[in-house]
Amino acid sequence: MSIKQYLLLIITFARVDVASQFQRSRFGTIWLLVNNCLYIGSLGFVWAYIFSVKAAEYFPFFSISYFLWVHISSSILESSMLNVTYSNIIKNLAIKSSFYVDRTVLKTIILLIYAIPVVSFIFIYFSVAPSLKSLMYFIGAFIVSMFVLREICNLIFVLSTYLPDFAKILPSIIQIVFLASPILWQPTMLVERSFIYEFNPVFYWLENLRNSLLYEQYNWNTSLSMAIFVLVASLIRVKILKRYFQNIPVLS
After folding, report:
1. Global pTM?
2. d(CA 244, CA 185)
């Protein structure tokens, strides 16, 4: 199968997954847009008031951080359940794990697209105008981010398949990372306790995406570190995990 055929295949399945998620709804994916507006609109004002931050400063930060985090966390959590969701297919068809992961990540990307109108409205309302350079930086950072996310999801899939209990504790880990990462709060709020985020890889991950769009700042060191991570994680998964986990049908 060529790369083009593979891409068309996962795009088709990802679109089917999104459609099936709203198949019993009269308004379908419109609810995504409504829910995003309600969530960002309500919590944005609440947290801006609690943190005593100007709405014009907080809303762009919070909206981008939140939607990117939902995309990342949803991909990881769904990857931990792929062996259950597609158990019948895994048992009967010799399809590599990367297919299920790519399908899941692409599905969350499609869902992320529905956040664009909300973010665009916030940018227009608060007079935030990303330049062409910042958009290019963001696209580059997002592409690198997708390779990192794909590799993390592959590792999560392997671990949750071999250790089913891992999927049970993963939501708690995700919640802890969410609270310890600058998504609801800004890094400038914890100047005296910066260690909370300085040793958090998710901070640098989100910061590179966020700053590239809001402030036209692209951290090449972060991208290089992420690229090295992808290379090392891929080698571990393909060369080591596959060797020791040959009893897992989807990896054999």
Report:
1. 0.87
2. 42
Which residues lie below 8 Å from residue 68, measured CB to CB, with a gap of 6+?
A: 112, 206, 209, 210
Residue 27 DSSP label: S
Query: Which residues, 6+ apart, have CB-to-CB distance to 94 below 8 Å?
Result: 249
Cα–Cα distance, 201 to 229 (Å, whole number)? 11
Tokens describing residue 136: 């290019």
Q: Are 129 and 92 in contact (CB under 8 A)?
A: no
Region of residue 117 (phi > 0: left; psi between -120 and 50: alpha; otherwise: beta) = alpha
CA 98 – CA 83 distance, rounded (Å):
12
Q: Give residue 85's pLDDT band: very low, low, confident or very high (50, 70, 90).
A: confident
Q: How far is CA 153 from the centre of its chain?
A: 10
